[in-house]
User: Which sequence fits this backbone?
C-alpha cells in the first residue's frame, strides 16, 4: 500500500547526485509478539552526496531510530543500510567502530565536548583518536573550518568559557575535521536559543554549499528543516513524504498532512485524502 501522504514538489534535483547513504527494506522492531513495536518499518530511502537533508515526523515516528540505523549506532532487525558501497548492516563491531571513526561525523543536541580540552583540542580529537598526525593539508582544512565557523578567537577557550552556539560550532568543526562521507546531526539546535540555533543552522548549510559536505539532520522544528535542501517526512516508521527546497510553510503543511491523516484515517492510510486537504 502506498503510504506517501505529502509530496508537493517533484523529485529534488539533488537526487541526480551521487548516492551517499541509502536504506533498503530497513526495519527495526523492539519487543516480541503482541508487544512488538515496529519503530522503522521496511524503509526505502536514499540520501545524496553534497546535500543537506532533514528528517522530520511526529514524536515517536521513528526518525531518530532511522538515523541511528543509518549511522551504525543501532542494529537493524532486517533490511540493509549502505554508506556508499559499504553495507553497514553486515559489519561486525570492530568494523563498525572503524567506519564511524573514519567516514561518519556526529553532531548531537548536548554538544559532547570534553570539558578539560580547549576548543582547538576538541576539534582535533578525531584525528588524534585515529592516530593521524595532521599534515599541511589537514591543518589547512582545520583553518578553513575555523574560518567558516567563525571560531578563530575562541580556539584556546574551554567549553565552559563558550556560549551554547559556540560550543555547537566547535562540535560541528569536530564532526567535519576528518572529512567524513556524511555528518549525522540529531536535533543540533535543541539546546540553543533561537538566535544561536539560526547561526548553527546557517553554518551547517554553509558547510554543505561551500565545503561540499553531506549532512543528514533529525529535527522537530519546521524553521530548522527549512535550512535544508530537502525534507524527508516519516510517520509510523515509514517514509511518508518528500519536500524539495523546503520553506517553513511547506514543512508545516506536510506535518499538518501527517496529523490530519492520523486523526481521520489512522496509520498507513493512502495518500489521496491528506494531500487533497493540504492543497484545498
Assistant:
Amino acid at each position: 500500500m502506498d503510504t506517501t501522504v505529502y509530496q508537493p514538489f517533484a523529485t529534488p534535483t539533488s537526487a541526480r547526485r551521487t548516492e551517499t547513504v541509502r536504506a533498503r527494506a530497513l526495519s527495526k522492531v523492539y519487543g516480541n509478539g503482541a508487544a512488538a513495536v515496529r519503530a522503522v518499518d521496511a524503509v526505502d530511502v536514499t540520501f545524496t552526496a553534497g546535500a543537506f537533508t532533514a528528517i522530520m515526523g511526529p514524536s515517536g515516528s521513528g526518525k531518530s531510530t532511522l538515523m541511528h540505523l543509518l549511522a551504525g549506532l543501532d542494529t537493524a532487525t532486517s533490511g540493509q543500510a549502505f554508506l556508499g558501497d559499504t553495507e553497514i548492516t553486515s559489519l561486525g563491531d570492530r568494523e563498525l567502530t572503524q567506519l564511524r571513526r573514519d567516514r561518519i561525523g556526529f553532531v548531537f543536541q548536548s554538544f559532547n565536548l570534553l570539558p578539560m580540552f580547549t576548543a582547538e583540542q576538541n576539534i582535533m580529537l578525531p584525528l588524534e583518536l585515529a592516530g593521524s598526525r595532521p599534515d599541511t593539508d589537514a591543518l589547512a582544512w582545520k583553518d578553513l573550518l575555523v574560518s567558516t565557523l567563525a571560531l578563530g578567537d575562541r580556539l584556546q577557550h574551554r567549553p565552559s568559557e563558550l556560549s551554547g552556539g559556540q560550543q555547537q560550532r566547535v562540535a560541528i568543526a569536530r564532526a567535519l575535521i576528518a572529512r567524513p562521507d556524511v555528518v549525522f546531526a540529531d536535533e543540533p539546535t535543541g539546546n540553543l536559543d533561537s538566535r544561536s540555533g539560526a547561526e548553527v543552522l546557517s553554518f551547517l548549510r554553509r558547510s554543505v554549499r561551500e565545503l561540499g559536505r553531506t549532512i543528514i539532520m533529525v529535527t522537530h522544528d519546521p524553521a530548522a528543516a527549512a535550512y535544508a535542501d530537502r525534507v524527508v517526512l516519516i510517520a509510523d516508521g515509514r517514509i511518508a513524504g518528500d519536500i524539495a527546497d523546503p520553506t517553513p510553510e511547506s514543512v508545516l503543511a506536510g506535518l499538518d498532512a501527517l496529523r490530519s491523516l492520523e486523526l481521520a484515517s489512522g496509520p498507513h492510510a493512502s495518500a489521496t485524502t491528506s494531500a487533497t486537504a493540504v492543497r484545498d
Remarks:
- The beta strands are 19-30, 37-48, 52-56, 78-83, 86-87, 104-108, 182-186, 215-218, 230-235, 238-244.
- DSSP finds nine helices and ten strands in the chain.
- The two ends are 24 Å apart (CA to CA).
